[in-house]
Amino acid sequence: MAIPIDNINKMRALVGQLLALKAEYDGLRNEYTALDIGNVITDADFEDMTKSQATSAVSNLDTLFGSISSGVDTNLYRFSDGSHRV
Question: pTM for the full model?
């Protein structure tokens, strides 16, 4: 059975959102790294976790976003609806 075009368009929109989210994460990650290297982040900065737990979560996100190829020559970029291209 063929996939209705509406579903394909929804998938394309999700890929566009994913690529936009990855770009935003990359910028935030750079800021987090600079703060972490400068020993500016402490346990007191978090209400419900420790610095170690936050660092572990960021590492998990690095793994997730690191597996996403988002360059202009990738199929994900081509498949997206273009919403991430600002």
Answer: 0.75
Low-confidence ranges of the chain (pLDDT < 50): none
**Token pair of 65 as six digits:** 């976003």
Distance CA 7, CA 33 (A): 38
**CB count, 10 Å around CB of 6?**
8
Q: How far apart are CA 58 and CA 39, in angstroms?
A: 16
Nearest to 53 by CA among 14, 76, 1, 61: 61
Residue 42 is encoded by which pair of tokens? 């402490």
One-letter identity of residue 55:
T
Domain borders along the chain are 5-79
**pLDDT (tens digit, 9 = 90+) per residue, 44-56?**
999 999 999 999 9
